[in-house]
Write the structure tokens for this entry.
Amino acid sequence: MCTKLRIFKSNLLSVLLYGSECLKTTATIERKLEVFQNKFLRRIMSLLAKHDHKHGTA
């Protein structure tokens, strides 16, 4: 598993979820967290694909 993905799962995701404990959970807030997570994961995966292609590992 990529280091960036591990960091995302262990650090960033836990911080987001911890901060969201203070908020009243609504469908809008859940959707915003989901959109952020998907956007961030897409960015990481795009960087991984470019790195693999550049180094001939894909």
In short: The chain has a mean pLDDT of 76. The chain is about 80% helix and 0% strand.
